[in-house]
Amino acid sequence: MKNKKEEFDIIIIGAGLSGLALAYELSNKTKKKILILEKKKKFYHDRNWCFWNYPKNPFTKNFDNSWKKISIIINNNKITHTSPQIKYLHIKSLNFYNKILKLIKKNVTI
Predict the structure, then answer these.
(1) 20 to 30 A Cα–Cα from 11, which one of 23, 37, 45, 79?
(2) Where are the domains of the chain?
């Protein structure tokens, strides 16, 4: 019996936020065969991720919390910025994993 070797154009090490986001972007912009190498057998809530709503991405409308007001304190001076267009978004990692894994399942092997 022969071992069938599958070939891939791109191999990504790790299925964390960066690896999965990279796989998503590459799978949407190329026809390359992509493999993600990941040691964990199950995805679970292991962290939180925050990001800006711009540029738009698959999570711009799929977040757990959002903030319209940003405050920065420098040398005891507080600067607050409020914008109806720019939001700071938060997503729980398990929600991220579930969404992105559905989006890439046809084009990426994990």
Answers:
(1) 45
(2) 10-109
